[in-house]
Amino acid sequence: MLVLKNISKSYKDKEVLVDINITIESGEIISLLGPSGCGKTTLLNIILGLTEQTAGQLIYNGQDISKNTMQERGFNIVFQDFALFPHLNAYDNIVYGLKNKSVQMSKEEVQEYIDFLELTPHLHKKIHELSGGQKQRVSIARTLVMQPKILLLDEPLSALDGVIKESIKERIKLIAREFNLTTIIVTHDPEEALTLSDKVLIINEGTVAQFGTPQEIVSAPKNQFVEDFILRQLHIKRHNIYQLFGETYA
Hints:
Elements: E1 2-11, E2 14-24, E3 29-33, H1 40-48, E4 55-60, E5 63-64, H2 70-73, E6 76-78, H3 90-95, H4 107-116, H5 132-144, E7 150-154, H6 162-178, E8 182-187, H7 190-196, E9 199-204, E10 207-212, H8 214-219, H9 224-234, H10 241-244
Parallel strand pairs: 3-8, 3-9, 6-7, 7-8
Antiparallel strand pairs: 1-2, 1-4, 4-5, 9-10
Helix pairs in contact: 5-6
């Protein structure tokens, strides 16, 4: 369980995040959703340990990790642009971080992740020979072999289209379920957040506009911003939103 308690962040006189309070259960997929500049990436970086909060606490499984380094936290991130090494093949990218890991994984354990992500036919390809979806899966595999306590993803679907995007969405869901891996995703896309996540944190100008399940957000938006943002971004009328997610929300 990860608890964000009164998390705030300021840069000089500008408040970027104000009093964020949420609880993330083990194994949940959580999306941080909001318009550009709302503070969602800053919040992701605070959770990762890349940025220090101005106020508040991060509590992981009952322990205050607010002052812990990235390495001490043991979380890991998949970047938006994949951040793969172009001079290495897919396999060498996947195992690159293991040489600096104190507890090594066996080749068989690494292969389990490779098989899970269906990457075996592509292991000897250089990065420029891979499709966008394959690059994303290599990036995810590289992160998973480090056995993160929490998986963070920064706009993981933004560079993908159509069938490939849907395939990666399903793969992220499978990873969270198969490994009971808490997964936190930054996205600006409401449809992506609502169809991928167990819960969605909608941020508006650094504050929590709503935190709840997709069903709760669709059926009972807490304020006008949430309703307008969801409907405007999805380009649909309110009576059609229920059809989009394939079920009726009371």
